[in-house]
Input
Amino acid sequence: MTAPPEHAVQLEGLTRRFRARAVGDNGIGSATDATNVTAIDGLTLEIRRGELFGLLGPNGAGKTTTIRILCTLLAPTAGTARVWEFDVVRDPAQVRRHIGTVLTGERSVYWRLTGRENLEYFAALYQVPTETARRRIAMLLDLVELTPRADDLVERYSTGMRQRLALVKALLHDPPVLLLDEPTTGLDPQAARNGRDLIRRLHRDEGKTIILTTHYMEEADQLCERVGIIDKGRIIALDSPQALKRAQQHRTALRVEVEGPVLGVTPMLQALPGVGHVAVVAQPADSTWEVTVELTDVNDTLPRTVQILSGQGLRVRHLQLLDISLEDVFIALTGRRLRD
Ligand SMILES: Nc1ncnc2c1ncn2[C@@H]1O[C@H](COP(=O)(O)OP(=O)(O)OP(=O)(O)O)[C@@H](O)[C@H]1O
Ligand SMILES: [Mg+2]
Output
């Protein structure tokens, strides 16, 4: 047995172009750039073994294309992709042995069979020895809490249950790497929450390397150790969610509702290091003031801001930190929203 690799996935200059169907093609000349879509454009990225990594980006960013290349469904136009040190083009069988994939909208299980029958069928197809398969199926059904419904027909399952069954199917051959394309899209909030818990457990308890795509920034934020923000086929930011947000922290604001004499407070606050813009707005309805202070350094500046306010004889009625989200990070990077 060789030692497991340091990196589960390595992309180098990975590029995929699609020939868009030429509309009104008059047959003169060859396909121009305009008729080609560059779905991913020179992606270079390393994902550590055991990492829980998120590809976050808007529609058409190239997330699914990346996943499809990694699971050998699609060949790169240029560059390389390696999984567990196997090249997706030169060694696709080895790549497939090391990954489990759940793609969106894919009907990956038979609805006319029961959940358990599906799993037994696919385990046989993957040549998992019968006894191992039986144990693994029981264990995985338990893990995703499908045991009580294992002998029902899949056509009677809810969307969330089918999603969990597809996950079990992807785990049958015990791959070290899981590729999940939009794992919670289309699920109701409760099912989505359960789905995220399950992903966490697979990462934490089973040591899986997990690469998921999402356009929910909360999902990327809550779940992923590292996030690659992808836009138009390129990685535009790559870091932990915390670090990505910290890099934009001048956008963090403290909003304080105060009672009392606010006159003169603005210049005092503005003189504090770590304070950007200060806005004071009267709220005549309850004769309070809303003071919004842009902070570049929350830890130091927040207590000093509050000190100044109370030192001026103001009564703080309400205090709120307007935290920046990954959505704010995306807007700051691209000038656009994640979802249009
Ligand atoms: N088979 C294909 N033929 C032509 N163009 C394609 C094909 N597959 C993807 N594309 C194009 O490549 C680009 C990236 O698509 P991709 O599906 O990877 O995006 P995505 O990030 O997964 O988006 P979404 O959030 O909508 O799922 C898009 O412009 C898309 O139209
Ligand atoms: Mg997609």
The longest helix spans residues 189-204. Residues 18, 20, 37, 39, 57, 59-65, 215 surround adenosine-5'-triphosphate (ligand 1) (CB under 6 Å). Residues 183 and 212 are 7 Å apart (CA to CA).
